[in-house]
Structures are given as structure tokens and as C-alpha cells.
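Progress against Task 2.4 (sequence-to-structure conversion) is shown through the following example record, which the project officer requested during the mid-term review.
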Amino acid sequence: MNRRNVRPALMLGLFAALAACSGEKSPSGPPGSGAPVEVGFVTLNAQPVPITVEIAGRSTASAVADIRPQVDGIIRKRVFTEGSTVKAGDLLYEIDPRTYQATYDSAAASLQKAEAAVPSAQAKVDRYNQLVGVNSVTAQSLDDAKATLAQAKADVASAQAAVETAQINLGFTSVTAPIGGLISTSAVTEGALVTANQTTALATIRQIDPIYVDLTDSTANLLRIRGLMDSGRLQRPEGPLQVKLILDNGVAYDKTGTLQSSEATVSQTTGTFSMRATFANPDRVLLPGMYVRAIVGLGDDKAGFLVPQRAVDRNAKGAATAMFLTADNKVETRIVNTVQAVGNNWLVDEGIKDGDRLIVDGLQKIRDGAAVAPVAVTLDENGVVKSGPAASGEKETAK
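C-alpha cells generated for the chain above:
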């Protein structure tokens, strides 16, 4: 054979071999290429699902007391340590008591003087009562004696009131804590002049164990929750609702609180309503003014479906969709209603029935109505396939 004819013949053979290779059908190729595509599915069953709502909030002291003097005077001593914890009744400040001590002593002396006049006036009335019957004393004299006795007793009562007032003012020179809690820095030092009921507080005490967390939520969320309750699907727990906190650094607070109360009105400006939860705070982890996220447990959806988030997509209108297997192993796309996220799942209340087979693996290779080869798979806690086509061969990441 001519060498010039050998080379074209070899090239024609090579092209024929390549064409034959390209014509072979892969057993798991794209739709319409031959054998059905393998997809992984999970079977969905209705189950009780805890319903929670996440609400933003801020911590606030359960009690606040501004310390103000109730008498005028000079601060002689500050007793407490700034920023420390004080108990109710602890001494905080001492105001110079000398003026008030003198006033008390004077009032006490006036009381003694008034009390000394009573026995004499009483004896005179008793004596006149015996003599008025034998005309030794006139009725007018008896009346005058009785008036003198009444005046003496009134003087005693007035002096007693003056003593009590002086004693109260003297007690006010010792400024004590009305509540227990964390005390702020002092606004005054020793030697400062203070006045009764001044506008500037000497210090502030905040009670932070227990501590309140004020939560604010939208009315739309409130109506959604009420809709679940009215439908009978939401089973409320007995007792107050439990609340968990996520701190600003993303760490969960280790104490569980309870929902105490909620506002009966909605804000006209923001369309929100407020709730208050109470938490134990023995270690003072929560401080007034901290931003937190609260997770409020509302109860259990008695017949909820948990759909892995990796299996849910959105159509052009924004509606949530998922792909299911029909009885003849074809793909069926449905619109589902997602209520809220539960870990790596969506809680779905519409578009699913018990026993439906949901496609969770191989979604990129299929379309609606395509015939597929289903393989049961399992997902781990992160929503990643543990067994099935994606686990044994091509890996798919969770959406």
C-alpha cells in the first residue's frame, strides 16, 4: 500500500472510534440520555415539632432605686464600695447629724415639760369635782380646770409629734439602701453639701437578680401564632412559656427564663407589641442594657413536617418549592408553605402528606416530570447526605 494512503486511512479509523465512544450512553447521564438518573430521597412523616419564635430584646433591671437625701446637710462619710453589691438596709452615706440631734434633744425636752403639766392639771380637776357638789367651787372653775387639763394633754401630743419628726430627720442622716442590688459610682464625695429631694441622685441601685428582658415582636408574628392556636395544631405547654437567650456574642445563656407579661396594646408608630421575660442572674452575666435574642417556646405542632432546607427552592414568584417522587418514580414539583426554620430544616404545614418521598440528592440533574431511579438516603444533623449516591460518589453540599 502506498504510504500516502496509509495515513488518511488511520485517521479515518481514529475518527470512527471517537464517534463510537461519544455515542455510548452513560447509565446515569442527563435526562433523555438513556438510563434514569439516580436521586436520593427521604420519606416524610408527620411528627410533633416544637414551635419557637426568635425575638430581639434588651435586658433591664428588675428594680431601680435612685438614692437621694431627704434632709439637708454635709456628707460626712461614704460607706459603700462603688460598683459593689449592696443589701437592702445597708448604710451608704452619713450626713452630719449634729443639727438634727440638737433638734431632737430640744423636742424631747419640750415633751418632758408638757408631760409634767398633766398630773397637776388632772389633780385640780379631780379636786374640783369633789367640791363642786357642796358649792365650795363654782361650775365655771371646774370647767376652767378641765380646759387646762385638755390643753396640757394636747401639749403632750404635740410634743410627741415634734419628737417623732425630729427622730425621723435624725434617722435620715444615715442614708441606707432601699433595695438590694448593684450600686453605681457615687455622684458626691465627703464634704459635699446635699439638699433634701435634690434632682441629682447620690447613686443608683439596680437589682439584676432576677433580671428582666424586654422583648419586641411584630403584630404579623403575633397573628401567625394565633392562627396556629386557632387551628388546633399548636399544643400549648402547661404553665408559663419558657424562654432561652442568645447573647450578643452568639453564646447561649445557661439559664432558662419564663415569660411574665405582655402589653395589651400595639404601638401605633412601629406596629409592634412588647413582652417581658424574667431570668435568674446569680453570676451577673446579664447587665442592664445588653442586647439579646430570645427564643420563646410556644408549644408543639402536633402534626408538622420537617423538610431539609437543601431540598427547598424558590420559584419566580418567591414561593417555596420542593421535588417529590410520584408512585411511578417520576419527579413532581410542588409548592409548599414554610412556617419557620427548625435547625437545618423547614417546618412545612401545606403541600405535603404523610409518607411522601422527598428528593434531597441529585436535584441538579433532574427536571419536573423526569423518570428517575430513587435511592433512599439519610442526612446528618448538618443536612449533609450520609448514605446514598452523593455519599458514595459525587458529593453535594447542603443548601
